[in-house]
Amino acid sequence: MAPSFKIKIVDECQVSPPPNTTPISLPLTFLDIPWLLFSPNQSIFFYKFSNYTCNSTTIIPFLKHSLSLTLQHFSPFSGDISTPSRPVKPQIMYSHGDYVLLTIAESDGDAFSQLSCNCPKDVSKLLALVPNLESPVSNETTSVPSLAVQVTVFGDMGISIGLSLQHVVSDERTYNIFMKTIVCEKVSTHTVPMRKIFDNLHFSSSCDHNCN
């Protein structure tokens, strides 16, 4: 079922960690392998603007920069899951030049309250707010990205941040720290302007969905 609101993709960009990020290779253990069979974890976080001075022009550049800085501390998130033929073991790899695909979208401001409210929702509508990410076992190639991100701007009402993350890359605690670090990086690297911007953003709600 198609969503009852319109979404327009306005940009797709590649966000990489800073150049000095160290490449890493993490072979999967026996206990990691079953998680390759799961579809990516999909989450949406809604943030409401507290005033009308905060908009996509001010928030999107800082989100890109903060995501890049955060990926330096979570480099496997910007890498790939490699599933080569035997006897080589599957592994999570980050190399220089790897990136996270960030999708920027726009939608009507009227849809924000409907989607972020604490009430039952049609999952098909929420799926329009998260990026597509293939499962390692459903892809014909030998590697798939670890993470994809979509930021949807709802006029002057707020934004949603949708993420698709491979289950094998992270547990829920690490995932939670990753999201919190994005905000911490913003505040620490752009002390004055970022504090003003994030004072105008209030966490509204979040949704998690797994298609296993």
Provide structural commentary:
With 212 residues, the protein is of the alpha+beta class. Helix content is 26%, strand content 31%. It has 5 helices and 10 strands. The strands form 2 sheets. It has a 6-stranded mixed β-sheet with strand order 1-6-8-9-3-10. The protein has a 4-stranded antiparallel β-sheet with strand order 2-5-4-7, with no helix packed on it. A hairpin with a 3-residue loop joins strand 8 and strand 9. Helix 4 packs across helix 5. It is globular and about 55 Å long. About 7% of the residues have low confidence. Keywords: Acyltransferase, Transferase. One of its GO terms (molecular function) is acyltransferase activity, transferring groups other than amino-acyl groups. Pfam families: Transferase (PF02458). It comes from Heracleum sosnowskyi. This is Anthocyanin 5-aromatic acyltransferase-like protein.
Keywords:
globular; 4-stranded antiparallel β-sheet; Plant_metabolite_acyltrans; CAT-like_dom_sf; transferase; 212 residues; 26% helix; alpha+beta
Question: How are the secondary structure elements laid out?
Answer:
Blueprint (H helix, E strand, L loop, with lengths): L6 E9 L8 E4 L13 E9 L6 H18 L6 E3 L8 E4 L5 E8 L2 H7 L6 H4 L16 E3 L1 E8 L3 E8 L6 H18 L1 H9 L1 E10 L2
Parallel strand pairs: 6-8
Antiparallel strand pairs: 1-6, 2-5, 3-9, 3-10, 4-5, 4-7, 8-9
